[in-house]
Amino acid sequence: MVIMKRLVLASSLLLSVCLGHAQQQKILADKILAQIGGNIILQSDIDNAIRDYKRNEDPSVGSQLPPDPECQFLKTMLTRKALVIQAERDSLPVSDEEINGKLDNQIRYFVSMAGGREEFERNAGKTIYQFREDNRPYMRDQMLSQNMQQKIVSSVKITPEEVEAYYNQIPKDSLRYYESQLEISEIVMHPKANKDVEDLLIEQLLGYKKEVESGKRKFVDLVKLYSKEPGASESGGMFTMNRLSKQVDPAFTSAAFRLKDGQISPPVKSAFGYHLIQMVTRVGDDATVRHLLLIPPISDADIKITVDSMETVRKYILDKKITFSGAVSVYNEDDQLKYTGGNYVNQEGSTSVTYDQIQDPTLLTSIKNMQPGDISTPQVFQDPNNNRGQNSSVRLIYLRSKSEPHRENLKDDYDKISARALQLKQEKVMNEWIQKHIPTFYVHLDKNASKGCPALTEWQKVSDELDNGQQTVVN
């Protein structure tokens, strides 16, 4: 299951902006290594998984590529596809809403890592909507395999005695050494532009709209001259969208799909600023639009108002009128923090982070001067997730906990040790289930693929028996 988890990580990264490179590699001559049911596994699938694994190795947690990576990854892919088939047999539910939610969360993260939607789409070579639809089948299979795996091991429990026995068999010089572990929460507010400034932008947009509708100017020319969207001078503000996509601001989507071909909207306020939208063409829930974006500039006075508001929130928390978690729910305006309850998470999604996993230098500096339980004063910082104005946001930082560097022990690290002991027990149950159920699947392996790979012995045995007509698949 360790390899299984790493494969999920590596394969999930196929959704990242690095996917374009991985797909280019697959243009080369390919080879079928295995088939299970109606699913095939290609040599390029193994090569890409190994490449992604290497790129994302984390030596700090002891993750290393196994000595026989092709063998182990092929076994893992066979296992995952077997789990998908069994999940379908057992009619395990995976709804479109769940798939959409997972895809949206993945893409939201990758867009942030790429530095914005335009950069993401440029690297991926396709729109977010196209990217999302292309990866939907894979996400469905990933979720089905995970659900089936959970069904198999859901009844596996671990006792304190088993945890202690597991800990005691670890050589003392092999016990893990932990750097300081931090738990950090944040509340972020985005400064708002002065209403007079917003009114001025609306008047500008109305003027542009009038010029286009009177035939004096072309919409695309105005976009290239005045739009504040990155890349608008090259793209002319054009992009494709889908009514059901959650990647586009709801107000923008609503306004766009009220338009007829060639029609221009009145000024539309979104999370990014103010838009004029022109419908280029529409077919059902799919549309191609152009838009002109103006972003209200944020002044120092606007930032000061937000700082004062955040100071009021801080006072509420210190006076125990509201908890920090409650304040996150009420006052936080950062989209990513909404999905983590205000908690700072590392790339694996854990809320327990080390200093070197904190990628924001200003956050890192602040944390080093804080003690557990401290809540910072409001801080102005350059926020890459804030597409408004000058990218300045204001935040409160809460240092929930901080552990000192130490060698692993049962007192301080029982939960971590227990989780590893449970994982080993679940792996045993999982491996036993797979060995028992391999004969229930149609399997064909290329003999060269399994040569010198003891991990594939049972898979090859079933493949040989099916090829020789000695066995039929039992459902």
TrEMBL record:
Domain of life per record: Bacteria
Domain PpiC per the UniProt entry, residue ranges: 179-281
One of the record's GO molecular function terms: peptidyl-prolyl cis-trans isomerase activity
Signal peptide, first to last residue: 1-22
Keywords for the protein's UniProt record, in alphabetical order: Isomerase, Rotamase, Signal
UniProt entry tagged with the keyword Cell cycle: no
Record Pfam families: Rotamase
Keyword NAD: no
InterPro entries xref list: OMP_Chaperone_SurA (IPR050280), PPIase_dom_sf (IPR046357), PPIase_PpiC (IPR000297), Trigger_fact/SurA_dom_sf (IPR027304)
This protein's name: Peptidylprolyl isomerase
Organism ancestry: Bacteria, Pseudomonadati, Bacteroidota, Sphingobacteriia, Sphingobacteriales
